[in-house]
Fold this protein.
Amino acid sequence: MATPAPPSRARGITSDLTVDESLLIHAAGWEPLDLVCGVGIVSVPAGVWNWGNGVVGAASDAHDASVDIAARELRAECGKVKGHGVVGVRVEVSVHPHHVDVELVGTAVRPMEAQDPRGDDAARAMPFVSDLSARDFTLLLRAGWMPVGLAFGASFVYAPRRTAGAAMRQSTQNVELTNYTQAMYAARESAMEKMQRSALHVGGQGVVEVKVTEGPMRFARHAIGFTAWGTAVKLVAEAHRFVRPEMVLPLDDAVVQFEADSLRGEGSRGRSRR
Amino acid sequence: MTDSGPSTPPAPPPPPPPPASGSAADLPKDAAHRLEELEHGLFTSDLSVNEFLLVKEAGFHPLGFVMGSSIYHIGIQTRKWGQSQELTKLTEAMYTARELAMNRMEEEAEQLGADGVVGVRLDVNYYEWGSDSAEFIAFGTAVKAEDGNSYRNALGKPFTSDLSGQDFWTLMQTGHVPQALVMGTCVFHIAHRKLTQALGSMGQNTELPNFTQALYEARELAMTRMQDEAGRLQASGIVGVRLEEKSHQWGSHTIEFLALGTAVTKGSGEVTLPKPTTIISLDN
């Protein structure tokens, strides 16, 4: 069993963790090492955004490729500082007319003394990447789970068109537009399916905090993009460990919204439930 | 959530449009394909880590992120300038389209063998290429009970609920189980005031009874319809009710009132409620 090398204290630690998160992660027996990043930029052939039918295959290929490159770079940087994984990864995906740009920035971490639940060598060979905060990471660890990687999926479609005749007929009616519904449904499902496949590929048993973004492209309003991503997780303990929460009632007058809302992940889209 | 007492406006509400029957507009192939993959042990969910752990704590395991959508063309109905009235055709459109989206989401959950769907969100999107149509979407995470009991609702379908993971756990602690996301909607046209009325009230402190009454009636209609849905499920109550008002794209005098909540029933078992620990936090 190889013990982890001491961190290169010559330079000290750089991380974007807050003081609280830093405390939590140390309390869980892990330490931050360095801020690492990965960038992937892949070109999109000219003309793919012009009017067409069905899916914009070239764009989703470019998206997948740039995600792969960015994640690979991030893992490589993490490996250089002898990290076992990257937490709190900020994900920025921007699709431009001629290229797709993916940027990942996060903090590399590793266990201090205890062994990595996945085995040290395996962990070093394939560091995990996760957009979960350090807080969520420690909570998952406590329950016996670990993140294994980011799961990504995207698809782009051209907005379908109605014939002028159909539009006329339907203009005063309440009616479902089945071809539109089908096209959007298919695109959304395909983005999610790709996400699932990439989760399985990194050995995940589940994906948490799935975020879905969708909408017309800024530069080509007739094309609609769907992306879905989340952190793939895996059970590393023998069984799920229950966390047994306790109910508390803060007595402060000006309660800083302590419960539900503040604990809810920030990233998840449109959580306007309350 | 009872009727709001003596001040209920006298005008008898028109009968609520019947919600669309569960016409199993079959799921697209792509959905079936994705869900098949999910049956091989991978789960997906938009639950945060907190919610994931709490759903586990409540005895459920997430199965998959499910969704349903419908792009719906909303018809046209003429309005009278000076008369407040419900626009039944628009109400019906809003109802039917949401039901279609919800039904498809339930079908996806059904295909995964789920007991229910938590964290349901309903959204309406408008796209530039179809200003007279809107996309209605329902999202949620399908869950299954780990104790093998069935938690399906009175209609034999997976339960649905817009409660977050936190609220879901807390609700289960009280011995209640969610039945279904219930909703009531009413699209109402609010009369413009006559010029003489507007002049008459100028400079005065005065209630505008026709506005008050129209808004009142529309809200009551939406709430009543929501309660009727809960009644059909033999629910013992509705929690987390929200009342939303939106003009969508109809201009300022036509408003949709949407009431949403989770219908719940009391489980059979005895429950001893834990006593929350009181704390005082030292920050700030």
Notes: Residues 1-25 of chain B have pLDDT under 50 and may be disordered. Chain B touches chain A through 73 residues (CB under 8 Å). The CA atoms of residues 57 and 169 of chain B lie 7 Å apart.
